[in-house]
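Progress note, sequence design subtask.
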C-alpha cells in the first residue's frame, strides 16, 4: 500500500485567538487548495511544530492569551528545524509593524486585511511545496 502525497499550493499554520478571524483565514486558504492547521494561541502553535508539522509560512497574531505572538516567536526560533519558517504577523496593534521587525518577521499586515493582500503575502513568502504532515 503506497502513501499518496497530496499536492497543495501551500501549507500554513494560522495562530489567531479570535475564532471568526481564524476561521475566515482558514477558509480562504482551504478554498485556495492550501493545507491549514490552526492554533488559538502560541502554546498550541508550538505543539503543532513539536509534533513535526512544518508549514511553509506561519500567520501570527501578536495579542493572544496563554502564549502571545512574541513568546511564540521565541519558542519557534528555539525549535530545531523551525527557526527559518517565515512568519507573517497579522495584527491590529498600532505598534505591530515595529514588533514584527523586532521579531524578525518576514512581513506585517494590519488587521483588517483584505483577502487578496493576505494571499499575495503568503505567495511571496512561501515556496510551492508538497504538503508536509
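Output:
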Amino acid at each position: 500500500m503506497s502513501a499518496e502525497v497530496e499536492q497543495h499550493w501551500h501549507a500554513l499554520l494560522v495562530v489567531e485567538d479570535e475564532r471568526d478571524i481564524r476561521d475566515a483565514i482558514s477558509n480562504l486558504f482551504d478554498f485556495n487548495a492550501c493545507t491549514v492547521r490552526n492554533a488559538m494561541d502560541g502554546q498550541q502553535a508550538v505543539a503543532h511544530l513539536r509534533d513535526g508539522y512544518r508549514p511553509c509560512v506561519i500567520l501570527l497574531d501578536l495579542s493572544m492569551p496563554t502564549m502571545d505572538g512574541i513568546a511564540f516567536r521565541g519558542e519557534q526560533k528555539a525549535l530545531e528545524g523551525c527557526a527559518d519558517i517565515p512568519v507573517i504577523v497579522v495584527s491590529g496593534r498600532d505598534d505591530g509593524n515595529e514588533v514584527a521587525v523586532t521579531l524578525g518577521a518576514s512581513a506585517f499586515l494590519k488587521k483588517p486585511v483584505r483577502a487578496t493582500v493576505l494571499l499575495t503575502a503568503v505567495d511571496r513568502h512561501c515556496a510551492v511545496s508538497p504538503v508536509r504532515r
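The radius of gyration is 14 Å. Work on this subtask will continue into the next period as scheduled.
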